[in-house]
Write a structure and sequence with these properties.
heterodimer; A: about 210 residues; mainly alpha; Rna Polymerase Sigma Factor, Chain: A; about 65% helix; about 0% strand; B: about 220 residues; alpha+beta; 2 domains; 4-stranded antiparallel beta sheet; 6 helices; about 35% helix; globular
């Protein structure tokens, strides 16, 4: 069932039961954007703004441009809310993907810059952090960080450049000073290994 | 069953799932995946990895008042009274990239600068997607009517029609559904058509589907 069909129900709940917007489920918040009043909109933005802005900032690198991209992502989500299908993923993933695509569009045509090794360390949590912070990251990102750490370093950089920073294989090749074919192979090999690590039953090892 | 097309396409499936393919390679690999069940399955299986990669990015608190500014922009869009303004530099960069990626073409039928209907720009241009003509946008008549016709885009679902102005601002004109890659949408009395330089169709994932340039 598409979330659009939940809209009137959500509005009814908000109006009659007085369920605070900040306690509503993600899908209910999204469905209530157009009919639930400004409190629903505020709750929706506040719930996801750290992740959306964080994605935008990581890709574009400029706080002013990142805010513009993040705002655009919320506007896109608001307009596309009726088409959201929860069977295809969570609201958070959907919204983050929108922000990521917009951020990549905003930086298209840029000159590729080498990935700072400290960025990779920060993203995969390989630094000497507090155990509590480590545990939180492990919980939120599952085994992906472990899987990236297990990759050969050059493959880890390639998949992070492409998947996180949105660089094309050409840009990865330029940044790393390697042939295009090598960059494509590193991205493909890394993806295959990450798939195997996350869901071994899905991967054709042939 | 693997054939030559599959062998070639498989070199780029990971990039397709990550959303980093561009231009002719994107068109070629997408076309292959569209009819190859095996490769489509591969890409589908890679998408969760691509999504999880984004979860690695740490959240960052935006500047104070971000939430209110978002609602303010949403309100403008809802009322249809305010353009979704982006920085000019961004628009120029996107437009330049779009010109390369989509092979923009189009033409200006008439010109005017007044916001009054009769004097407003009466324009027409072709929507182009990866070098292919996939439709047309026209604003004409008195009162002014805006008509968008799209075909053969290869995507289905809602798209938003936006116009980009000379100062880099963007006005959202409206949304409509593409079914089997095609769709038609029109509206009378469109606001925000003065001084437009290009129109673009944007999918729900934020990606530009096609661009029409008024030159």
């Amino acid at each position: 069932m598409k979330i659009q069909q939940q809209g009137p129900f959500v509005s009814l709940v908000v109006a009659r039961v007085g369920l605070p917007a900040d306690r509503m489920a993600d899908e209910a918040l999204l469905a209530g954007l157009s009919a639930g009043g400004p409190d629903v909109g505020l709750a929706f933005v506040r719930r996801f703004q750290r992740q959306v802005y964080g994605v935008a900032l990581a890709v574009v690198g400029d706080p002013t441009l990142a805010e513009d991209v993040a705002q655009q992502a919320f506007i896109r989500a608001w307009k596309a809310a009726p088409a959201f299908d929860p069977r295809r993923g969570s609201v958070r993933t959907w919204l983050t993907t929108i922000a990521h695509n917009l951020a990549i569009d905003a930086t298209r045509g840029r000159k590729a810059t080498p990935l700072d090794p400290s960025d990779l360390v920060r993203l995969i949590g390989a630094g000497a952090d507090e155990p509590e912070a480590w545990a939180l990251r492990e919980e939120s990102a599952g085994g992906l960080r472990r899987a990236i750490r297990d990759l050969p370093a050059e493959q880890g950089r390639a998949i992070v450049m492409a998947g996180v920073y949105g660089l094309t294989a050409h840009e990865v090749a330029e940044s790393e000073g390697i042939p295009l074919g090598t960059a494509k192979t590193r991205i493909r090999s890394a993806m295959t290994k990450l798939r195997a690590a996350l869901d071994p039953s899905e991967v054709d090892h042939g | 069953m693997a054939d030559t097309d599959c062998d070639v396409a498989r070199e780029s499936l990971a990039e397709l799932a990550l959303g980093t393919l561009r231009g002719e390679e994107l068109r070629r690999v997408s076309a292959h995946v569209e009819h190859c069940k095996e490769c489509r399955h591969e890409v589908t299986a890679m998408v969760p990895v691509a999504s999880q990669l984004l979860e690695l990015i740490p959240g960052t608190e935006p500047p104070l008042g971000f939430d209110r500014r978002v609602l303010s922009r949403v309100e403008h869009v809802e009322r249809g009274t305010g353009p979704l303004t982006r920085r000019r530099g961004v628009i120029m960069a996107v437009a330049a990239a779009a010109a390369i990626v989509f092979g923009i073409s189009g033409w200006l039928v008439g010109a005017g600068s007044s916001s009054h209907h009769q004097n407003q720009s009466q324009v027409a241009a072709d929507f182009v997607q990866q070098g292919r003509d996939v439709g047309r946008i026209e604003a004409h008549g008195t009162p002014l009517w805006l008509t968008v016709t799209v075909r053969g885009t290869g995507i289905s679902g809602p798209v938003t029609c936006e116009v980009v102005h000379e100062d880099g601002s963007i006005t959202t004109m409206g949304s409509f559904d593409l079914v089997g890659g095609s769709g038609t949408w029109s509206t009378p009395d469109p606001e925000g058509m003065a001084n437009v330089t290009q129109a673009q169709l944007v999918g729900t994932d934020g990606k530009v589907v096609a661009v029409a340039h008024f030159s």
